[in-house]
Amino acid sequence: DAPAAPGPGALPPPPPRLRPHLPGGARVLTGSALAGWASLACGVGHPYWAVVTAASVIQANSALSWHRALQRTLGNLLGVLLFAALVPVVRTGAVVMVLTALALQAGAEALISRNYWLGTVCVTPMALLLTEFGGSHPARELVGDRWTDTLVGAAAGLLACALVGNRRAADRVEAAVARVDGARAAALAVP
Predict the structure, then answer these.
(1) What is the value of pTM for the model shown?
(2) How far apart, in whole angstroms, are the C-alpha atoms of residue 144 and residue 151?
(3) Is the Cβ–Cβ distance between 52 and 146 less than 8 Å?
(4) Is 54:34 a contact under the CB 8 Å cutoff?
(5) What is the three-class DSSP state of 93?
(6) If I label 132, which of 46, 79, 154, 190 is the partner at 20 to 30 A Cα–Cα?
(7) Could you report how far apart the first and last alpha carbons of the chain are, in Å?
(8) HEC sequence for 14-71
(9) Count of beta carbons in the 10 Å neighbourhood of residue 33
(10) What residues have CB less than 8 Å from 113, skipping those under 6 apart?
(11) Tens digit of pLDDT for each residue in 105-155?
């Protein structure tokens, strides 16, 4: 069956290959925007950390998103603690800073595919350390900003998952209920 042509002034529906991605894209856009605005409202100096956290939290369904939010939050908490422990060492010289960044990168690459939260334990101090290459920043401020942005981003991502529903999933549930109703009616009609 050919789809009906849209009425005057109506936009045509997206191509079938794009339809499954619209809810996910809308969630990421909504969550990222909410996270960025909330981070700016909190006065955090690195709002992009909240945006990245929100985007990483959003998964295919709410259960996976909650799981990813917990992983991201735990990994970032341990990562900021690791960064705080490494600050005195990395500020001893450029060579130590570069070697530490390389070690954290290797750890992130080795761990992220096996366990997301363990990978973020390495990614978080590496991201914080990369800000140090441009000049020294107060460690307490960096740790506070990263932790605040993690919480704001995770909350915004979960809120976006709640606000932007997956209509395709709802349509599948409705179709399944209709099939069950039809089967029930057919079963009751049998003498």
Answers:
(1) 0.73
(2) 11
(3) no
(4) yes
(5) coil
(6) 154
(7) 36
(8) CCCCCHHHHHHHHHHHHHHHHHHHHHHHHCCCCHHHHHHHHHHHCCCCHHHHHHHHHH
(9) 14
(10) 119
(11) 999 999 999 999 999 999 999 999 998 888 888 899 999 999 999 999 999
**The amino acid at 109:** E
The CA-CA-CA angle for residues 131, 104, 129, to 5°, reads 15
Q: What is the pLDDT of residue 166?
A: 63
> Which amino acid is it at 15?
P
The residue assigned the tokens 């029930």 is 184
How many CB atoms are located within 10 Å of the residue 86 CB? 19
- Amino acid present at 116: Y
- Other CB atoms within 10 Å distance of the CB of residue 116: 17
Query: pLDDT of 162-172, one tens digit each?
Result: 888 765 555 66
| DSSP conformation class of 134 | T
